[in-house]
Amino acid sequence: MVFKKSMTRFFDILFSLLGLIIFFPFLPLFLLVGWFVSGSPLYIQKRVGFNLKTFNLIKFRSMKMGTVSTSTHLVNTSNINIYGYFLRKFKIDEIPQLWNVLVGEMSIVGPRPCLINQKKLISERKKRGVFKVKPGITGLAQILGITMKTPTLLANTDLKMIKQMSLTYYLYYILKTILFLPSFR
User: Which backbone phi and psi does 141 adopt, to 5 degrees?
Assistant: First the structure.
């Protein structure tokens, strides 16, 4: 079964609204703690999205103020603030991206949006047509633990996910991310 863009958008709106409603009571707490820990609870970063257009990705701040805007794997772990360890462990830092999904800049499932300075990854994804789909909060590369430090492998994995995308895989990637389900291929 082909997973059409209109179906993807329907589920993206449904799940992002559901997620925002579920987490709404906790958002003030996350923001307040983030404010006390870092002085700035939200982090907004330019990312490359659908058709190579840039957009502002929103996250809860997990790094110390003044940390260089680069890939997570290139940042010293000592730059993660104490609250950031908690946010990252439970993937809470990604919750604000539900807003990016709701407004249509991202999908729940898709290739993670890269930074504008990740030229090698942008080139590899461009060759494979990965930018023809919206970036996502989660996807095949995330559940397999493939990071942006291996651009060719990441771009190939993104392409594999795009080619096999169906409603079953879409739901599986979401559940796998939330519940840490065992992998299947």
Answer: -60, -40
Beta carbons of 92 and 86 less than 8 angstroms apart: yes
Give every strand in the sheet of 42-48, ordered side by side: 54-60, 42-48, 114-115
For residue 27, the surrounding DSSP H or E stretch is: helix 27-38
Cα torsion angle, 119, 123, 124, 130, sign: positive
The helix/strand/coil state of 182 is coil
DSSP string, 44-98: EEEEE-GGG-EEEEEEE--BPTT--SS-GGGS-GGGB-HHHHHHHHTTGGGTTHH
- How many CA atoms, within 13 angstroms, populate the side-chain half-sphere of residue 126? 9
Residue written as token pair 């908690």: 86
User: Read out DSSP for 94-119?
Assistant: GTTHHHHHHTTS-EEESPPPEETT-H
Confidence of residue 181 (pLDDT cuts 50, 70, 90): very low
Q: Tell me the torsion sign for CA atoms 51, 57, 62, 64.
A: positive
Q: Is 134 helix (H, G, I), strand (E, B) or coil?
A: coil
Would the pTM count as exceeding 0.90? Answer: no
